[in-house]
Design brief:
Blueprint lengths: L1 H35 L3 H15 L2 E9 L6 E7 L3 H7 L7 H8 L4 E3 L21 E8 L2 E11 L7 H45 L4 H16 L3 E7 L5 E8 L3 H4 L3 E3 L4 H8 L3 E3 L18 E8 L2 E2 L2 E2 L2 E7 L7 H62 L5 H30 L8 H16 L4 E5 L2 H4 L2 H22 L4 E8 L2 E8 L11 H12 L3 E5 L6 E8 L5
Parallel strand pairs: 14-15
Antiparallel strand pairs: 1-2, 1-5, 3-4, 4-5, 6-7, 6-13, 7-8, 9-10, 10-13, 11-12, 15-16, 16-18, 17-18
Helix pairs in contact: 1-2, 1-5, 2-5, 5-6, 5-9, 6-9, 9-10, 11-13, 13-14
Length: 560
């Protein structure tokens, strides 16, 4: 019997050694597998999968610590189906037991995680879990995140060997994450350099300002893997920023949106003149206004486009889908440099536009001077000659014709002098242009509507629209916005102002109750009369989605 006992003990030790050998082999395979990848997302996925496999855990997760060092910005799971994740709801932010490993970055083993003092319990639809093993992952003495493993199969507890294996894996994971971040950083830097070169080339080739804005937003969106990218610019007379371009599935709705300074990332970045980040912008208490603009988005960053007197020339806002990693310091530095380059490109575009405007004004001055010095003097001399010759004409009919020709020359001289005056005063008159006036009116309407209308403007509103027609447009805009606030009961209002193809078109749409069937209100009849007095038209229609769309148009004078 003693011999049998010794043989059983020997067999047990052989099995233990074999098990240890197999486990070491599995650990080495896991280390090699993790270190083989260079894509950070794939590295993180392989780490959590390898950890769950090594300790035979039913559930595993890897939480990435956000820039604030207190919450989780990313949470990858193993063992849960997509349906279960959707039923559980929002991913954990790092409170409760998960936060215990964040605040005390040391391995933590529990027989019953529900009995720990930091445990909050599970949300609805969350599968029950009992045993727990948490191990931090360090990257160059910095805690990058934590591995969380629960429910070792077979109903047994995690032991010291499990803790040692996961701690060893975490060291290799730290090296793999560091390599992936370095590789990702170098690749990102190259993409930023290419984007800067593309913007510069586009600018030098004479691209318009809207095209340059779109290129800036598109490239930033691609490089940062953002779902939303928009550029908002300050407008005189508006207490906020106007979104000039938006790259998103809902970009058309955000275009022209007035973003208030208070309670928004873009407003905070504009006033501070430095980047502002948020792990979950649309649930961040510092930016309550964001929750009314977009949902389904997570980490966000707002970067000012250059600064002038402490305030930016505009703001680039980027936001990733919920659950994606937050914007870290490694991403902010090249992003700020890109924004600075973009601001320089915009400034150069403005300078070129100013130079073109100056050249146009100088050309008008030259034309006016030539008309005055050459054409008018010649016409005046011709008129004097005809007047003198009329005294020598004896035929009454011929003398009358000469007199009419002199009168025509006088009228021509008056027309030319009026043209000269117009050339020298056009674009020099003081006061805000139609673009700024419309933006201010839309911004003021937010108070009565209870929400900011969306504003979109196209064309040369400040140069092609005469002051008289601009006054009519502002009166119509004010009346339509007032009607939307008083009668339509709308929760969404959009304004489009477009000048081009010989006419100006003002469109105001809403999702309200529509125009009563019994007839149009007196205010709308006045707007129709305004349009007809200018040779234009006014009409309304009901879109398929409901509400009302009112279109007011008037022809613009053409230059011969």
């Amino acid at each position: 019997m003693r011999l049998d006992e010794l043989l059983d003990e020997l067999q047990a030790r052989i099995d233990e050694v074999r098990g240890t050998r197999d486990r070491v082999h599995s650990l080495l395979e896991a280390v090699v597998s993790v270190g083989r990848e260079l894509d950070l997302a794939q590295v993180l996925r392989r780490i959590v999968e390898a950890a769950a496999l090594l300790v035979d855990a039913e559930y595993g997760a890897l939480g990435v610590i956000g820039p604030d060092g207190r919450t989780l910005s990313q949470f990858l799971t193993v063992g849960l189906t997509d349906e279960e994740i959707a039923e559980i709801g929002p991913l954990p932010a790092g409170h409760g037991l998960l936060g215990e490993v964040i605040h005390h970055p040391e391995p933590l083993r529990l027989t019953d995680l529900g009995a720990h003092s930091s445990s909050y319990g599970f949300p609805a639809h969350h599968p029950p879990m009992r045993t727990f093993l948490g191990v931090p992952i360090r990257v160059r003495d910095e805690v990058f995140g934590n591995l969380y493993l629960t429910d070792k199969r077979g109903g047994i507890d995690f032991d010291t060997e499990d803790e040692t294996v996961i701690s060893t894996l975490s060291v290799a994971a730290g090296v793999a994450i560091d390599n992936a971040r370095l590789y990702e950083g170098s690749q990102r830097q190259q993409r930023w350099l290419r984007a800067n070169a593309e913007i510069t080339e586009s600018l030098l080739s004479g691209s318009s300002r809207p095209a340059v804005l779109e290129l800036i937003a598109r490239r930033a969106q691609e490089i940062t893997a953002a779902r939303l990218a928009d550029i908002a610019m300050p407008v005189a007379g508006i207490d906020g920023l106007v979104v000039e371009f938006a790259a998103d599935t809902d970009g058309a709705e955000r275009q022209g949106l007035v973003v208030p300074f208070a309670g928004t990332l873009a407003g905070a970045a504009h006033l501070a003149g430095k980047p502002v980040t948020a792990v979950q912008a649309w649930a961040d208490e510092r930016y309550p206004a964001e929750s009314q603009v977009q949902d389904g988005l997570g980490p966000a960053v707002a970067v000012p486009l250059g600064t002038a007197g402490g305030e930016s020339r505009g703001v680039l806002l980027l936001a990733r889908p919920a659950g994606e990693p937050a914007f870290g310091e490694g991403e902010l530095e090249p992003l700020v440099a890109f924004a600075g380059q973009a601001a320089l490109a915009l400034e150069l575009a403005e300078r070129r536009r100013d130079a073109e405007q100056i050249a146009l004004l100088e050309e008008r001055d030259r034309i006016a001077r030539d008309l005055h010095d050459l054409a008018i003097q010649r016409l005046f001399a011709t008129g004097m000659t005809l007047q003198s010759a009329a005294r020598l004409v004896e035929h009454d009919g011929a003398a009358e014709r000469v007199g009419r020709a002199v009168d025509d020359l006088d009228e021509t001289i008056k027309i030319i002098r009026s043209t000269i005056f117009g050339l020298r005063t056009k674009d020099r008159e003081g006061g805000p242009g139609l673009r700024a006036r419309a933006a201010r009116a839309v911004g003021d309407a937010a108070t009565t509507l209870g929400h900011p209308p969306r504003l979109s403007m196209e064309g040369l509103l400040d140069t092609d629209v005469p002051p008289q027609i601009a006054d009519h447009v502002m009166a119509v805009l004010g009346e339509l916005l007032s009607n939307a606030a008083r009668h339509a009961q709308a929760t969404r209002v959009g304004v489009t102002l477009k000048a081009g193809q010989g006419e100006i078109v003002l469109t105001v749409s809403d999702n309200g109750t529509g125009i009563p069937a019994q007839g149009r209100r007196g205010g709308l009849l006045n707007l129709d009369e305004r349009a007809r007095s200018l040779g234009g038209s006014f009409g309304h229609e009901t879109p398929d989605e409901g509400g009302t769309r009112l279109v007011w148009r008037a022809p613009l004078p053409t230059e011969d």
